[in-house]
């Protein structure tokens, strides 16, 4: 059963993470989470510890340089803390913008990858993020494309959307399959 939040945003974070963890308990062993600065990652680790559930947790941050030359979004101490707990932390090229973002920023317009991203955003920012981070987690070797994972995204900050998804790599992007929507906001950012 999909849980619908009335509005998008950070206030749905705790509920989203708890719903995702209870879905994982049905037997899904990989969780991919968007956490730019680390707050949502810390919260998910706390819930997993509280629930005594061990999963392959892959945290995806913004790419280095997202908000200025060489700027890393996640502070090093938070990254270190997550790594010590066995969490994987990956920062790399965003699958649904990539070099196309550099082209559209310089010349205007949109390329096909950014059109895919905009189309997915009609389902909500968080659902688009779930697709994107799933590809990034697969391409970085942190999950397999052979089994379903849970992906969690949000609208700018925190989490408000979670799905069960069969991953694909960027070069087989259209093989990606959304299996279940665990939760999402009705009103989008
Ligand atoms: C690779 C990546 C792409 C993202 N793209 C978007 C986006 O297109 N729209 C959006 O509202 N949030 C986007 N986010 C934000 C996430 O959905 C999520 O809310 C955020 O990473 C949580 O970070 P926090 O733990 O620091 O709050 C993105 C995050 C990452 C890591």
From TrEMBL:
InterPro entries: DUF1867, Pyrv_Knase_C_sf
UniProt-recorded name of the protein: Uncharacterized protein
Native species: Methanococcus vannielii (strain ATCC 35089 / DSM 1224 / JCM 13029 / OCM 148 / SB)
